[in-house]
Design goal:
By secondary structure, the protein is of the alpha/beta class. The chain has nine helices and ten strands. The strands form two sheets. Strands 6-7-8-3-9-10 form a six-stranded mixed β-sheet, with helices on both faces. The protein has a four-stranded antiparallel β-sheet with strand order 2-1-4-5. One of its GO terms (molecular function) is ATP binding.
């Protein structure tokens, strides 16, 4: 399988504080890798370095053979990013949001419009192309948030807590769409706090804590490798969770 993403010794420091400490992993086309960890473990910081919105202190990120530090704009051309916040333009319609995002990739307007129509059909919003985004339900907004970063036909899709706040039905719809994209050959990297979401989507899991990888392996066998009953117990064990001492440690950055 073709390696789409390669992360080597990725490190992020803010002064004397180390948010991400020597993280390494790879992701192939048609595979999904989930990063699991508590708040403040460095998940979002890791993603931000990968998609070039946060400078890398040390280490290397390669996307489709492109060094993200050396050619961030070129690397971004093959990435689609779904963040926790939808960041939709409320002054534009559903279709106009899609087109405005597509123009950022220097794609001819006619091609952008054609792909926008196809993607809105894919996420079930074909009948809402001319609707204001403020008229969409929460689940419908998340469908649009998924469709928009696919406008450049990305080989790597990055999702940071993509279904937070969605109801059960909307989450399952979202999962189904992501699995279709994986079957079509996309590489998917996501963070999530939902163990059932990781079970439904991930081929492999990386567990991080205090900026370091503390466990990694196939989603289906990681618990067994750690001698745990299930993935949730494996996560709690790997992160040394102790209910008797649950004080939140002070950190500067996630």
């Amino acid at each position: 399988m073709t390696t789409v993403l390669s992360v080597e010794n990725l490190t992020k420091q803010y002064g004397t504080f180390t948010a991400v400490n020597g993280v390494s992993f790879s992701l192939a086309a048609g595979r999904t890798l989930a990063i699991l960890g508590p708040n403040g473990a460095g998940k979002s910081t890791t993603l931000k370095m990968i998609y070039a919105t946060t400078p890398i202190t040390r280490g290397t990120v390669m996307i489709n053979g492109i060094n993200v530090q050396q050619q961030p704009r070129l690397a971004k051309q093959t990435i689609g990013v779904v963040m926790q916040d939808d960041l939709l333009d409320t002054t534009l319609t559903v279709l106009e949001n899609m087109i405005a995002h597509g123009i950022l990739f220097d794609t001819p307007l006619q091609a952008v419009r054609s792909r926008a129509h196809a993607l809105l059909t894919f996420v079930g919003l074909a009948n809402y192309e001319n609707a204001d985004t403020t008229d969409l339900s929460g689940g419908m907004r998340r469908r649009l948030v998924l469709a928009r970063p696919l406008i450049n036909d990305p080989q790597l899709i990055i999702l940071d807590e993509p279904t937070t706040g969605l109801d059960i039905q909307s989450r399952h719809v979202f999962w189904r769409k992501l699995n279709i994209l994986k079957q079509q050959g996309a590489a998917i990297l996501l963070t999530s706090h939902y163990v059932d979401e990781i079970a439904a989507l991930a081929d492999d899991v990386v567990i991080v804590d205090h900026g370091c990888i503390v466990a990694a392996g196939p989603a289906g066998t990681l618990a067994q490798q750690l001698g745990a009953a299930n993935l949730e117990q494996a996560y709690l064990q790997a992160t040394h969770f102790d209910e008797r001492s649950d004080q939140i440690e002070q950190t500067r950055h996630q």
